[in-house]
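#onboarding

Welcome to the new folks! Below is a worked example of what a typical request in this channel looks like: someone posts a single protein sequence, and someone else replies with the predicted structure as tokens. Don't worry about understanding the tokens yet, we'll cover that in week two.

Example request:
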Amino acid sequence: QVAKYPGETSVVIPHPLRSEFYQEAREELRSATPTFIFVGTLYARKGPLDLIKAFSLVRNKDARLIIIGDG
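Example response:
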């Protein structure tokens, strides 16, 4: 639902991905290897080292940790 504001024009832009995309991805993730993903700048305040330490405690040896970013 689009809110109306006096003097404003609202335009609805449809999402560019079809809804089936999400369903397919969800089904794939259910059967896939457990994966933890960090996306962000690699500054200490963001805790990437804490994440690595915590990931070392994961009992599933097939689990993956993916770190994306720089800094």
